[in-house]
Design goal:
Blueprint: E1 10-12, E2 22-24, H1 27-36, E3 44-48, E4 54-62, E5 67-76, E6 84-88, H2 93-105, E7 110-115, H3 126-140, E8 147-148, E9 152-153, H4 154-159, E10 165-170, H5 179-184, E11 190-195, H6 203-210, E12 215-218, H7 227-241
Parallel strand pairs: 1-3, 6-7, 6-11, 7-8, 7-9, 10-11, 10-12
Antiparallel strand pairs: 2-5, 3-4, 4-5
Helix pairs in contact: 2-3, 2-7
The chain binds S-adenosyl-L-homocysteine.
S-adenosyl-L-homocysteine binds next to α7.
Length: 246
């Protein structure tokens, strides 16, 4: 069991990481380390890039708007994670930020915005989603970052959906039945999850989904949840039955 040191400051960089490498922080990162955290040369920071694991680094040269990090040694090997994609109708800013961070903490491999008729947002800010992925990963010590896919319309998403995967659709109109039983049949299959928009799915969308052999409609009980609540509920269930919480 990995014991996580949550006292250590963690920083995401895009650079390759290996012993002896020197990484230049972004201006914002330099400000955070030097001005906010008041770190100085030689202080330690844990750095990860989503590919090479987590490395202990020492703050190197500090200039007015920059600082370097000297990569010392590996502290955690790169981890994988369950091949579960979180597909969702995008929500408005703060709720989308929350949902992206929770899905990242719950170990998803991909974040796939799906545009449905009642989706309330037109444009999805992929850079903002990516920033929320990084923030959640830095706070929770997550080494495998989910990739952020371009938004796709529901019909196109279903038309391209792979035949060898199962799509767990959270259907607020599905008959109430044990989600554990429904998911139990998917033990050794690659799965994605789909959560609808604030206004729920249209009947025509529900019919389109139910017509797809790969779709498993899942009830999350008798109460209608907000979409961001449903995200946490269904990803906890899926992780327990199919993911890496076993
Ligand atoms: N109007 C509320 C709830 C919308 S339902 C809001 O403001 O958010 C949003 C999505 O969450 C649904 O499309 C469904 O995918 C999921 N969901 C919510 N409650 C559910 C339930 N009891 N069972 C299955 N899915 C549910």
């Amino acid at each position: 069991m990995t014991v996580h040191d949550f006292n250590a400051q963690r920083l995401y960089v895009d650079d390759p990481l290996s012993a002896g490498a020197v990484v230049m922080c972004s201006q914002a990162q330099a400000h955070y380390l030097v001005t906010v955290l008041r770190l100085g040369a030689g202080d330690r920071v844990r750095v990860f890039n989503g590919r090479d694991g987590e490395w202990l680094c020492a703050v190197g040269k500090i200039a007015k708007r920059s600082c370097s990090l000297e990569v010392l040694h590996l502290t955690r090997s790169q981890e994988g994670g369950p091949d579960i994609g979180y597909c969702f109708a995008p929500l408005k800013r703060a709720r989308l930020d929350y949902m992206v961070q929770k899905a990242t903490e719950l170990g998803v491999a991909r974040l796939q915005p799906v545009l449905t008729e009642r989706t309330v947002v037109g444009r999805v800010n992929g850079e903002r989603m990516r920033a929320n992925v990084i923030e959640a990963a830095e706070q929770c010590g997550i080494l495998r970052l989910p990739m952020v896919a371009e938004p796709v319309k529901l019909a196109a998403f279903l038309a391209e959906y792979p035949s060898d995967r199962r799509l767990v659709m959270c259907d607020e109109s599905a008959p109430i039945a044990s989600p554990l039983t429904a998911l139990g049949g998917l033990q050794n299959q690659c799965c994605d999850v789909l959560v609808g928009p604030e206004g729920g799915f249209l009947e025509s969308e529900r019919a389109l989904l139910h017509d797809l052999d790969q779709v498993v409609a899942l009830s999350l009980g008798p109460r209608i949840m907000r979409a961001d609540t449903a995200a946490v509920a269904v990803l906890a269930l899926v992780n327990s039955v199919i993911g890496d919480w076993r």
